[in-house]
UniProtKB/TrEMBL annotation:
Its main location: cytoplasm. GO terms for molecular function: ligase activity. This is UDP-N-acetylmuramoyl-L-alanyl-D-glutamate--2,6-diaminopimelate ligase. The keyword DNA damage does not apply. The lineage of its organism: Bacteria, Pseudomonadati, Pseudomonadota, Alphaproteobacteria, Sphingomonadales. Residues 21-68 form the Mur ligase N-terminal catalytic domain. It is found in: Cytoplasm. Belongs to the MurCDEF family. MurE subfamily. Keywords: ATP-binding, Cell cycle, Cell division, Cell shape, Cell wall biogenesis/degradation, Cytoplasm, Ligase, Magnesium, Nucleotide-binding, Peptidoglycan synthesis. It is an enzyme of class 6 (ligase). It comes from Novosphingobium indicum.
Length: 492
């Protein structure tokens, strides 16, 4: 495709010379003749240092800040080069699925995009979800490493899906993805906001900055005339609604305070829950086969996304009773030899841990035993807060390693324990660094009527130890380990 054609499609002024574009890359090692190279200042590297090498490898144009030095290729200059790069790349990647929706929030993005995909599928659409679990269609799931890898991969994936006949895609818009312009370009029919709570304050300076990064979804990413589906019961919901309103998006609120879907009541049952809701003046009862208030919230936001993009209400609400568990989200991994259920959940923020514990609490006759830790090279301030949530909500806590990455795992455990000193002093919280041993200890501890919650790693298939050149990923799957331990260890 010609550079001039791309510029015209993206509304970018172009004063030649023209060139044939063969692809887009933000890593100079992926540049081939005809590539447009995005040279960005990052956390670890300055992409501008690789401009010469990219041109040497055949880059025909470079998107970078105006001050960057570009010799031997066209320089597309902008103070926000990542945004310009996304605008230029979008028209290159065609076709794209006709209905795209994006979900942001601290917790619940993966769950919501996956539940949206399931609902679309039950409505007869060829649908996919993109996010932490990778790219999921009804046929397969392919891991991508990051929730939202990079803009060129994102757009290429959309085109690949469209070529396979996928018409509906729900994708996760992480705050990193939004602030780095990794997930935009094509028309986005609707955006959803689930909630906001503490996470990633290593990357964003304040909660306000973190929220502002997420609000780019409504301010800029959702297309003109698109819809905003907002969980209405969060402390940040009012502000999210204000962003959607000032952008002129079609507002669809969900929750107890919701007007699009109003949650009137929720009754936990054995393996699911009954929801009473009101939509368009009609009250309905939904038997949702997922437990926990948080899963009800995500499933209702998913339903909201269908309705806000033209889905049929009767069919959508009826399909909710056939939703299946999202991998690693309150997934029942095993039942111990004494009959204690063992759940795996991806709670890795204080709010998520509180939500996962609250989800299980109505099902606990005896004690709730939680095994968790916190990831290294991530927001440190959330660690004692996670400890506090566990000490307030669980009866027994075993603090173990998550993904230590480049940090000392014992120091991370200490920071978690800092938030639970009283519980530790009473002997109800203890440290078992090795995650397999910790899971074994929790299962051995569990008696009849108890429930074990293994939190933090959900679907993850490895434990990340070390960083940089010394990084190792040891195969590790909480569900598999739970099953092994449940089979080999008896309870007291
Ligand atoms: C903090 C963060 O988001 N970092 C991501 C970001 O890095 P960066 O822009 O800071 O890039 P950098 O590594 O400093 O390099 C700068 C530029 O030079 C380029 N480069 C670099 C080296 C080289 O030899 N040649 C070259 O061209 C790079 O491609 C990049 O464009 O862009 C890189 C390329 O896409 C990502 O690999 C990297 O993800 C790192 C590995 C990461 O851990 N990210 C996590 C925190 C993340 O993004 N997570 C969110 C989910 C969070 C959540 O919702 O909870 C996600 O969306 O996955
Ligand atoms: N609506 C919600 N409210 C509170 N907690 C939630 C909600 N949805 C999910 N959680 C908690 O967050 C965990 C992660 O959920 P999920 O993977 O859907 O979120 P995410 O936003 O995609 O996370 P990530 O930022 O890691 O991509 C769940 O396992 C659960 O503990
Ligand atoms: N998307 C999140 C995932 C965290 C998962 C947890 N297991 C950890 O390693 O901290 C992040 O990159 O911060
Ligand atoms: Mg996710």
């Amino acid at each position: 495709m010609k550079l001039s054609t791309l510029c015209a499609a993206a509304g970018i002024s172009f004063d030649g010379p023209d060139a044939n574009v063969t692809g887009f890359a933000i890593d100079h090692r992926k540049v081939a003749p005809g590539t447009v190279f995005g040279a960005f200042r990052g956390a670890r590297f300055n992409g501008e240092d690789f401009i010469a090498a990219a041109i040497e490898a055949g880059a025909v144009a470079v998107v970078a800040v105006p001050e960057a030095t570009v010799n031997g290729a066209l320089h597309f200059a902008d103070a926000e080069p990542r945004r310009l790069f996304a605008q230029l790349a979008a028209p290159f990647f065609t076709p794209v699925p006709e209905t795209l929706v994006a979900v942001t929030g601290t917790n619940g993005k993966t769950s919501t995009v996956e539940l949206t995909r399931q609902l679309w599928r039950m409505a007869g659409h060829r649908a996919a979800s993109i996010g932490t679990l990778g790219i999921t269609t009804s046929d397969e799931s392919v891991s991508t490493g990051l929730t939202t890898p990079d803009i060129a991969t994102f757009l290429a994936n959309l085109t690949g899906l469209a070529r396979e006949g996928v018409t509906h895609v729900a994708y996760e818009a992480s705050s990193h993805g939004l602030s780095q312009y990794r997930i935009e370009g094509p028309r986005v029919a609707a955006g959803a906001f689930t909630n906001l709570s503490r996470d990633h304050l290593d990357y964003h300076a304040t909660m306000e900055d973190y929220f502002a990064a997420k609000m780019r979804l409504f301010d800029e990413v959702v297309s003109d005339g698109g819809a905003a589906v907002i969980w209405a019961d969060d402390t940040w919901s009012g502000k999210a609604i204000a962003h959607a309103r000032s952008r002129g998006l079609k507002l669809f609120t969900v929750g107890e305070k919701g007007e699009g879907i109003k949650l009137l009541g929720r009754t936990p049952g054995g393996l699911g829950q009954k929801l009473e809701i009101e939509h368009a003046g009609k009250t309905r009862t939904i038997d949702l086969p997922l437990i926990g208030a948080y899963q009800a919230a995500n499933a209702l936001v998913a339903a909201g996304l269908l309705l806000a993009t033209g889905g049929d209400a009767d069919a959508t609400f009826d399909a909710m009773k056939r939703l299946v568990t999202v991998r690693g989200r309150l997934e029942r991994a095993a039942i111990s030899s004494v009959g204690a259920p063992i759940y795996v959940d991806y709670a890795h923020t204080p709010d998520a841990l509180e939500a996962a514990i609250a989800a299980l609490r109505p099902h606990v006759a005896g004690r709730l035993i939680v095994v968790f830790g916190a990831g290294g090279d991530r927001d440190r301030g959330k660690r004692p807060e996670m400890g506090r949530m566990a000490s307030e909500g669980a009866d027994i806590a075993i603090i173990t390693d998550d993904n230590p990455r480049g940090e000392d795992p014992a120091a991370i455990r200490t920071m978690v324990l800092d938030g639970m000193t009283a519980m530790a002093a009473e002997g109800w919280a203890r440290e078992v660094g090795d995650r397999r041993e910790a899971i074994g200890a929790a299962i051995a501890e569990a008696g009849e009527g108890d429930i074990v919650l293994i939190a933090g790693k959900g679907h993850e298939q490895g434990q990340i130890i070390g960083s940089g050149d010394n990084v190792r990923v040891l195969p590790f799957d909480d569900v598999t380990v739970a099953r092994e331990m449940a089979g080999t260890l008896g309870g007291k």
